[in-house]
Amino acid sequence: MKVSKNLKRITFALLLTFCLAIFAPFASFAASYQDGTYSVPVSLSGGSMGHNDIVSPCTVTVSGGVPYATLVFKRVKAPWHAPQYEWLSTSMGTVYPSVNESNYTNTFSNVPLPSLGAVSVTTLTSAMSDQHEITYSLYFDPSSVPTRGGSGSSSQSAAVANSSSNENSKSSEKSEKKVSADKDDKEKKDADSKDKDKKDKDKSKEDKDKKDSKSDKKKNNSTNKEKDSADKEKDESSSKTVIYAVIAVLALIVCGGSIYYLVKGGKNVDGK
Questions:
Q1: CA Rg, the chain, in Å?
Q2: Domain count along the chain
Q3: What pLDDT was estimated at residue 30?
Q4: CB atoms < 10 A from the CB of 196, how many?
Q5: Residues 139/26, Cβ–Cβ less than 8 Å
Q6: What pLDDT, on the 0 to 100 scale, is given for residue 259?
Q7: Which residue has the higher pLDDT, 95 or 164?
Q8: Which has the higher per-residue pLDDT, 12 or 32?
């Protein structure tokens, strides 16, 4: 009987210790952060996030020392549709999403967090043929939320810091977009310049070919004219030669006839 009482006491002490170990972090945590709304950088790791990613920074609202995060998951690769998460759960509770197919997002509002820093979350996805759970690790930057009793920290200064961080992030994004746009413009101008140079070269070659063709044609015409002129002169020379030969033959006949007549006529006169 005595042993039984001692066993009950030991068991009760162990259960009490276990309960304190479980709930003590939440109690101390509830008193660690200042109430307010903050912009907190968040990153994601684990699981398989090849097609989806988390939008950073996220909004964290601290109420009664407990932080609640608004988490937005966005599709980053085809096929294009909103991430197919049925629910998201932390050790503090489960939240269901708001789906927006127009911008491919899946938003979980007021997700209770046990703490900032590394937080384990579980989701149920229906992206595959069978629904299954996936566990991810989220990391919330704890320096973005002031703590109670912290040296010189306040919700207002944190909000200012977060606002400045957001402005710097936006400025960096604009700068990156401008650099990307300038690069695209340069590549387009280079491509246009190359196309123009190619067209100019092709046109120059075409003009040269036309000019050479005209020159060859002109040369051929000139050669043909010269040949025709030479043939004509040759024909005319041949004709003149024939005429001269005919005239020479006629002249010889006339001269011969005259001489014969004179000689014969002379003999007749002498015979009389």
A1: 55
A2: 1
A3: 46
A4: 10
A5: no
A6: 78
A7: 95
A8: 32
